[in-house]
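dumping this here before i forget
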Amino acid sequence: MSAARRILIVDDSADDAELTVRVLRRGGCELTYERVDTPEAMRAALERGNWDLVIADYSMPRFDGIAALRLLQERELDLPFILVSGTVGEDVAVQAMKAGAHDYVLKNNLARLPPAVERELRDAEVRRERRRAEARYRSLFDRVPVGVFSITPAGRVLDANPAFVEMLGFADVESLKRIDIARLWDQPKERTRLRALIAREGVVQNFEMWMRRQDGSTICCAQSARAVYGAGGKVDHYEGVSVDITERKRAEEEVKRARDLALEAVRLRSEFMHNMSHEIRTPLNGIIGSAELLALSELLPEQRRHAEIIQSSGELLLRIVNDILDFSRLSDGMIVLEQIDFDPIELVESLVDSFGGAARAKDLELALKVDISMPTGLRGDPQRLRQILSNLVSNAIKFTPAGEVLIRVTRVEESANDALMRFEVTDTGIGISPEVHSELFQPFVQADGSTNRRFGGTGLGLVISAQLTRQMGGEIGFDSEPDKGSKFHFTVRLAKGTEIGRPWMKPSAVSLFKRMRVLVVDTSLLSCRVISEYLSSWGIANVVLASGAEILDHLVLAAADNKMHAVVVLDEQLSNISGSSIARAIKSSAHGKDTKVVMLRSANSLNDSPEDVDFSITKPVRPSHLFNCLLALFLDSDHNFADSSQQVSPGTAGDGQYEWRKGIRVLVIDDNVTNRILIRQQLHVLGYTAEIVDGAPQGLEVLSREHCDIILMDCEMPEMDGYEGTAEIRRCEGDARHTVVIALTAHATEGDRERCLAAGMDDYLSKPVKLEKLAEVLDSWVGRGSSTTV
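structure:
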């Protein structure tokens, strides 16, 4: 033993005590000691210091060892106690051990005393450590903020900490022990399920159940417990922890309730927007469609102006409705972007055509500059991309009283997998004050309070564009100063898909173009610059002129090099002189008779091409049209080049090229009187043969006795809607026939097209539908074969 032990010796003989000490020291025990022989002396010794061990003589005249042991026990001191006696007898030893002595040593065998002391000191230390551990456990047991319990299978509480007692609403653990815990379960089936789980698994984790407190209130607890097995492998009791999760459950229920209410609000709003769209589009179909038909008839100038006002006002209202619907769907996260392959050049070319009329009406120069080497077959949502760009172009034209608008599309960067595209719309309009820059992309906010009154609109176009851009993983921004115009720009990163060929970009034209010299004549510097950049990118030598006065001098230079083919690209209206006059002068000059003249014209004047003009293309100039025009001018073989934008309106019944439409029989099924009158007239103008019925049952009756090539089906009808009607048509046809069914519906919210196609329809048209779109869709299906027999 390393440290000296303090030993209290209870013995009436000093010699015997000294003998005991010598034996211990010989046995290797370092010690200090004190001898006492009376109860009073022992009490005083115990008061004075901390003792490690007590050795007491069993038999003394006035104070024996058993009395000394009781004195120690009265003071609740857990000290090792060894009796030493000269009396030999088993009954003495048994009496000593029953009294609580830790060991019994005979005086004639004191050699056993040192190992006994060492053992009892070691055991005492173990007992003290166990008591300390038990104290720590009990402290934790009492202070832990979760319920800790031990319960018999019969439901009797063996032990529970204060947290568990308080959780169940009892005054103390003893009152809890007096009740059957099973009656506190609010739902007995949960207890049965818990016991079955423990029986099968031996343990449960976070089992949630509702318990009834002593006062009758209920709480939700999450319980984790295990079975403790006794002899024979039977469950002796269960022990575990229980956590009151009532507040959490109530919070979860509140969140769920709030979520359900929010979802219901979104559903109701979506349903309202869907119905509102349908109800507004139905009369708009009559307004816009009738105005368009009216404009095709013989009208006095004043009448024509009123018809145009009706049509433009109806289309403005339709744009407002579409903006509100898109904003609502974006706010609800209900717009899902398509992922299809498309050609960005084709997209922006068709878009710029659609704004040509609006720009010409304000005498604005609208130009398109695209990087013709950008990749094709980019994967994304072309319709949403077109919507963003349309919003920006529409705003640019709206807020530009005079001057020009430029649309530019460039490739910022490109990898093997994707391309980052940048779209810019620059105008020379009214500009935007710096103090409102931060508010521009806020809903229903415009640059100043008078903007709505002066220009109209909801202020949602930029908000929708910004949200769509972010959804496409891009960014949107602008630069602007008051009275100096604006430049809006946005980027989108598009994955590469299947490459789409551009038929107008023919490699064989490169060598032919190298023999060309082109003069570009236009009073618009923007138009000249854009056309010149296109020509240069194709390797065509070109000169830009702002007037027609210098044309002939440049033609003399071109004639000097007889290997060069001279081409003049001129605007139809230059300063103080018409393009036709310049074309006539070119063709009548000595050096210009072989010169090719290409005139840049507005779409509404293409049907009256001047005699001295070799080709006409529309402004704003599309690179594909310019390319094909130059290619067609010098091809030896016949060419079929046609400017698709020349078709500014659909062919009517009076056009000989559309006579074939009379043989196409269209069945229209619609319950709305106005819609039936309008579609009958639209189909008549287009030249189709039409039969109109006011419901799906009537349509089915017609189909049972007559052949129809195409069916235009409304979706929202009483008795039998368009979806049910289409299903019945498909059931009746079976595999023997397939008649084309095209939805013609005022349902135009997200998912309506997909619902129509899923119902068995072949295509989808949303009301209001204009003649051009109606003709395009019908003609496309006639071209594919409107009905087939298997």
